[in-house]
Amino acid sequence: MAKLSDLIIGHPEIDTFKALELLVAHAGESGEMFLEFDVKPDYKDTPRKWEWRLEAVFAAGLKYV
User: Fold this and answer.
1) Packed helices 17-29 and 50-60: angle between N→C axes, nearest 10 degrees
2) What does the mean pLDDT of the chain come to?
């Protein structure tokens, strides 16, 4: 299981939601089965429905981005 907080903390170079989407897509491609939303991303460009976007990116992998 991938935790969103672990992805964010493990990659301090990520500073936009768009970059986070790419990171989440890679996590989905790497074989992770579940993504846990244990924190809300605190980027200026984080959309209102960020959970839906990250879930779609995680499920589709790099094909989405």
Assistant:
1) 40
2) 94
Over range 42-65, report the average pLDDT.
92
The predicted model scores a pTM of 0.91
Q: Which amino acid makes up residue 20?
A: L
Nearest alpha carbon to residue 14 among 60, 1, 5, 2: 5
- One-character DSSP codes across the chain: -EEHHHHHHH-TT--SHHHHHHHHHHHHHTT---EE--S----TT--TTHHHHHHHHHHHGGGT-
